[in-house]
Each structure stands twice: as C-alpha cells, then as structure tokens.
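Working notes for the structural subgroup meeting. M.R. asked for a predicted model of this chain before we commit to crystallization trials. I am recording the input and output together here so anyone reviewing the notebook later can reproduce the run.

Input as submitted:
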Amino acid sequence: MSSTRVLVLNSGSSSVKYQLIDMRDGSRLAAGLVERIGEQTSRLIHTHVADGDTREQNGPIADHEAALKAVAAELGRDGLGLDSPELAAIGHRVVHGGMFFTEPTLVDENVLTEIERLIPVAPLHNPANLTGIRTARALRPDLPQVAVFDTAFHTTMPESAARYAIDPKIADRYRVRRYGFHGTSHAYVSRETARLLGKDPSEVNVIVLHLGNGASASAVEGGRCVDTSMGLTPLEGLVMGTRSGDLDPAVIFHLERVGGMSTDEIDTFLNKRSGLFGLCGDNDMREIRRRVDEGDERARLAFDIYIHRLKKYIGAYYAVLGRVDAVAFTAGVGENSAPVREAAVAGLEGLGLAVDGELNVVRGDEARLISPADARVAVAVVPTDEEMEIATQTYALVNGSGNLT
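Returned structure, recorded in token form:
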C-alpha cells in the first residue's frame, strides 16, 4: 500500500493544531486542536471528517509530548494512527527559517540546531515549533519529518527590498533584515489566484493581502515574492489586531526616555496592546464594524487608520510590480469582511481597481472574483489553506517531485 497521507502539525506555545490529509485527492481525514497545554483546563477537540464525528476531551495536558500522544490516540481511534503504513510524512510549520532555510527541509539534528539558533529572532514561535518536531520524532523516529518555514517564500526578495538602511556588517552580525511571515499563505493564495484567472503562476503578478488578527501584504511577481510588509519580526507593516505595524523607530526611544517604559513593556505594548485593540479596545473586525455602523467615533478612527495603511501598501506594491493582474484578499478579515475589501480599493479606480457591490457581499468557501467583468485588475477573495500548503510541500519533498503546482 502506497503512503499518501501527510500529518500537518502547527505547534504553538500552548497549543497544537493538526490535520491529516490524503494527498491523492487533497481530502481531509481528520483535524483537531489541543489548547491550553500545561494548564488544568486543557482541551482537545478532534474531528473525524469522514463521518463528521467530533470528540472533545477536557482536563490537564501537561506538555507537548502529552498533547501529541493524545492526538495520536484520537487518530488511532479512527483507524488513522501514527503507525499507519499510509502515513508518508509529518509536516511541521516553523515560523522563522532566517536566510538558511529557503525551502521545505527534511529534519535532522543539524536542522534542529539551526532552528534553535534562530530563537532570538522568533522567541515566541520557534521554541514551540521545535518542541513539536522533537516530540513527533520521538513518536515516529522512522518517519520523514519536514519543516516548512513561514519565511521561506519571502527569501526570493531582492536585497533592495530585504535590507534595512543600516551598516551591513552590523545587520549581518545580528541577522537584522526583512524576513517576512505568513509565507505559506502568500504562496498558496498567489498560486490559487493564478488558477482562478486561468493562468500559470509564472504569468501573473499578484498583490496578496493576508488580513487576519496578524496581517501582511506581499508583492508576487510571476510566482516569486519580491516584497512583503512584515520584516525582522511580524510587527512591521499593516495595522493588525493588536500590533501597531509601521511606526517611527524613535517612538521606542521616546517611550523609554519620556514614558519611563522598559524594553519588555514597550515590546508588549506594541505587539499586544496596539493596532485595532489599542485604538478602540476591540481587535475583532466584526465588532468594530458594528460599532462604526452605530456611530462610534473611536471605532471609525481605528477602521480608517487600518484602511489608510492598507491602501498605502496596495499602492506601493503596485509601483514595485509595475503591472498588477490581481489583488487577492485572504484570511479571516480578508475573506469575510466585505466593508474592508470595498474600502481598501475605493478611490483606486485610476489603478484599474474596483469591486462589484453585489459580488463583494456574497459569502462562500470558494475562490471567487469580486471585481466587475471589465475590470483592468482582478480583485479576488481566495480562502487561504496553510495546512494544505504545508502538506503539499511536505509530500513533494518526500516523493522527490518538487512539484508544487
């Protein structure tokens, strides 16, 4: 029996998300989430997709090893256990790969060491990713384990886009450069947008807007990223749910000198208490829009700042690409907020951008165009599928095909 299944693991600091995918047809066999790992109120939610059965466990799960063993047990109950000969590999999301990892990579001790070396530039994410990989290797040491990096898609950026304007010796010594994130989403969505247009990815220039609680934009030229909004960390760029996005770096010095805030306090302030939340006390776009519709001025200002930044990046990446075939909205806000999509392109008719009001408000799970039929630039809603992208890259690597299209 051929091995065609890939288990995708996304290990966070206190959670594990997973999907088991059959690569013969891209079908989901199982999916689930373990959350609040290390607490007394841990919870595991597991769905066996074939019969729609969802099971829930509540109670303490001490650590990631216990979490993954619980996941393996749930999969085993459905006849999909980690010991199945049909399991080809386990694909792991790893947030930061630096410049060392530019493509999906088979995990060995050297790879683990390098991911560990990158912890200073991804202190919240890489340690959890490492724990997930090490635990999975212990459970199935004979099985290929593949690391798929959020940053990899952006390593094609030219140096003119990836470098900050600081002394290169200092930058290289401390690995200071623009890495970008959400790479699996940007890769998947840019490719799916090309398919939606009936073209090969190499023929299409796309601006991808990944708008969730975390948000990023990318300029994709012929299937290759040439610029992206996040930088050394996921703080740079668009206004996000709780992150400020772009700001004058001197704001940090000012908050320290004048505000008396410590480095850790500023870090927390900009990453967890800024963005939409800092502006109006909400980071859920649905709630913000409800407040806007009721005349709430703080919510209106937050929405306007969010849209202003978004428009700036659309315009900037239009200039970077020179020719734009499509703008694609994705992730939670991008896929579900018609007001955000409408406002983001309003006034950009001179660039060939517009949305059809009726098409824009239609909800659905499929990729679709929301621009008028005669629009010079297509505007699309393309649901992202980072798990499928990780599975696709993992399966291509272990099969030696390298074909992701």
